[in-house]
Amino acid sequence: WRPIEQKEGVVTEAISSVSSTVGGAEAPLYLPVGDETEVFAAAWRSGLPILLKGPTGCGKTRLVEHMVHRFGVPLFTVSCHEDMTASDLLGRYLLVGGDTRWVDGPLTRAVREGGICYLDEVVEARQDAIVAIHSLTDHRRQLSLERLGGTLLSAAPGFQLVVSYNPGYQSVLKDLKASTRQRMVAIELGFPPAEIERKILIEESGISDVEADNLIRLGQAIRRLDDAGLCEVASTRTLIAAAALMQQGLSFRTATIAAIAGPLTDDPGLRGGLVSLLDAYS
Ligand code: ADP
């Protein structure tokens, strides 16, 4: 392994991305739970790709946005889905005013511009899209554009590939190839511990300590439910949404039904169970 040296702040301005924009003077708030920011920074400086694991709504995207801001590089976020093809990542020829012109996809742009390409929910992507990332994960950090006459691009300094997925949803069929995984640095996130999640809720929504405590206790109770039949539990994101609704003047009950119970299930029995639970914490 030949480490590459990347330095924070090489590019001073964080510029736009494909589906999210990170800009402004202040880095998006990210409260570390463990050593994830150190591991992330060390991997970026070494040019190593990252495998970010964790349940939906636990802070994966926020961590990436925070780090991108720290590094001062552009971010290209791609929400992967099962119809996504390699062309969606790499680029394609488009008709522009009667002419065909090659337009780089987000992965190609990140490689050329030295940005972070964040593939969110990568296990949703089709195998041909995944294949496109293989050569970028090894030490050559190269991207081959077959459709552009076999152009071989070497990643510019600053480039990093970050892929995220929810291990709870992982299907064996859609799993990443072991050889690709082994070339990546894993960061495993869970929901933040109560004390940190409480701070996040207060910072993000501005609710009072007491209201935050109630939401945190409710969140913990939902996460403790075994075999309730829920596909997801109350994530940090849903707790923040409930807090935001409360800040708009809604009661704890209305806000938590709207932001937590409703989104978590369509099953009337389960929903009833959740409503009784949240009534106990209001
Ligand atoms: P994921 O990408 O894992 O689905 P997000 O990164 O979108 O989840 O997190 C959802 C929300 O939770 C974020 O918008 C942010 O407000 C908040 N959040 C989660 N973890 C943290 C953290 N450690 N520090 C600050 N905010 C956090």
From TrEMBL:
InterPro entries: ATPase_dyneun-rel_AAA, CbbQ/NirQ/NorQ/GpvN, CbbQ_C, P-loop_NTPase. Residues 49-184 form the ATPase dynein-related AAA domain. Residues 197-280 form the CbbQ/NirQ/NorQ C-terminal domain. The keyword Glycoprotein does not apply. Pfam families: AAA_5, CbbQ_C. Keywords: ATP-binding, Nucleotide-binding. One of its GO terms (molecular function) is ATP hydrolysis activity. The keyword ATP-binding applies. Belongs to the CbbQ/NirQ/NorQ/GpvN family. This is AAA domain-containing protein. It comes from Nocardia terrae. The lineage of its organism: Bacteria, Bacillati, Actinomycetota, Actinomycetes, Mycobacteriales.
